[in-house]
Amino acid sequence: MRYFGYVLDHLRKDLRLEWRSRDSINGMLFFVLLMVVVFSIAFDPAGYPTITRQISGGILWVGLLFASMTALNQSWAREQRNQVLEAQRMAPSPASALFVGKALANMLFVLAVEAVLAPIFVIFFNLQVLGNAWLLALILPLGTWALVVNGTFFAALGLRARNRELLLPLILLPLSLPAVLMMVQATTGVLTNDLDPIQIRTWITQLAGFDIIYTTACVLFFETILNAE
Amino acid sequence: MDRASILRTTAWLWLAATVAVLVVGFRQAIFLAPMEATMGNLQRIFYYHVPHAILGLVFPYINLAASLAYLYWRRRDPLKALSADALAVASAEVTVLFAGICLVTGMLWGKPAWGIWWAWDARLTSELILWLLYVSYIMLRRFSPTGQTPTLAAVLSVFAAIDVPIVFMSIRWWRTQHPAPVFGGGADSGIDPGMMPAFLWNLAGWAMWGFFLIAFRFALERRRQIAEQDAALIAIEASLETPQ
């Protein structure tokens, strides 16, 4: 129980810091809006409504993927600046509590961005959800967690590397490709209603499995990479 | 004879044996194996493509084993841990090589056979992601700060090894939902017994070559590590001599 107390402390710290400056969220929101516009110029949603519906799942997740990467790196930079990592080493709480707290905080930020992004998508792409829209309330968090948990972990892994900002996408993207496949297929299946409910459920189950496996791996290995010297 | 010269002799003998097996394999594949019904001589590239594909799936697990060994020995026996790390980097690089050759030979076959260089079907996509994962491992090793490289790389190796089965399964599920056109004469669609000798000779030869490369790269990495240790020792001794 004390572990969750530590996690909560770290979470509250990150939320409070973010609330005071609102750097990450503002940056992500604007980035995601820009991505929607860029994709609209690139793919012309007005001209091809059916195709737009088929690719909007992919566009949504690609946009979120890049937006979350912009926020992930600097979430750890904040810790480094104020010698928080050294303090963490001396504190009685296990390092993985810091990781879980930060991952949860990042998750909340990205979910907040998604909550704003979804209506923008519907507006700019004239999107109508043909399938069961409530499933999206399940798919979006699962998919976001898959990106955020690995992203937070690898952002910490590359913390003292040179070219830190470059390293994160290079490691994160290959590893996340199966998860991206699962979330895009599930989302597109719901949006276009082209897939059977059983197929959508299978994608969601695979995504949940991916989340569980990688959350476990990240929590187990976080202490190792934090004190990698 | 001391250990170094025994190893060197073994290496030369292994190399000679490998070349011999590869020569036999070449003769089997190009001249002796029966002509394939639909593709003709074009099919012979499979004797190179398939062994590289199989070995490209074996070497990542050598990398995993070495990485786990590194993490286990890291605090208990640092010298063994260093050797484990050298094996990890060697097997990762050879994985990238073999997976890369698999992809390229596949493309060389694909253009004349299918008319297209690439298809996003299950097997090709999974192999490409495998290649990307191990290239990212090498990138991490290059970009990470020196003292941390082995540990960070070992952790990434575990993540990548977990990902490989997930990739293969999820992409196969994706592609069986929307079946792709079946191109004639897939690699494992029942191989003619007359082709088995060519296939087995090449599998053996390329496996021997792969292990030779890993051992060679391992030795190279060990030399680099030992040189680094010696330089560190000199620096420490020099610092002891300077007046405080």
Q: What features would you describe in this structure?
A:
Chain A has eight helices and no strands. Chain A is an all-alpha fold. Chain A has one domain. In chain A, helix 1 crosses helix 5 and helix 3 (49-81) packs parallel to helix 6 (136-157). Chain A starts with a helix and ends with a helix. The relative contact order of chain A is 0.14. Chain B has helices spanning 3-32, 46-73, 78-114, 122-143, 149-177, 196-241. Chain A binds chain B through residues 150, 157-158, 160-163, 166-167, 170-171, 173-175, 177-178, 181-182, 185, 195, 199, 202, 206, 210, 213-214, 217, 221, 224-225, 228-229, and chain B through 71, 129, 132-133, 135-136, 139-140, 143-145, 147-148, 151-152, 155-156, 158-160, 162-163, 166-167, 170-171, 173-174, 177.
Q: What's this model, at a glance?
A:
The complex is a heterodimer of chains A (229) and B (244). Chain A is mainly α. Chain A has helices at residues 2-21, 23-43, 49-81, 84-90, 95-124, 136-157, 164-192, 197-226.
Tags for this entry?
heterodimer, A: 229 residues, mainly alpha, B: 244 residues, 6 helices
Task: Tell me the distance between the termini of chain A.
Answer: 30 Å
Structural class of chain A: mainly alpha
Number of β-strand runs of chain B: 0
- Total helices of chain B: the number is 6
Largest sheet of chain B: none
Number of helices of chain A: 8
On the 0-100 scale, what is the average pLDDT of chain A?
89
Which radius of gyration of chain B do the C-alpha atoms yield? 22 Å
Radius of gyration of chain A: 18 Å
DSSP helix fraction of chain B: over 70%
Largest interface: A-B, 32 and 29 residues
- How many beta strands in the DSSP annotation of chain A? 0
Distance between the termini of chain B: 46 Å
Main sheet characteristics of chain A = none
Order of helices and strands of chain B: HHHHHH
Q: Could you give the order of the helices and strands of chain A?
A: HHHHHHHH
Q: Which of globular, elongated, flat, extended, rod-shaped describes the shape of chain A? A: globular
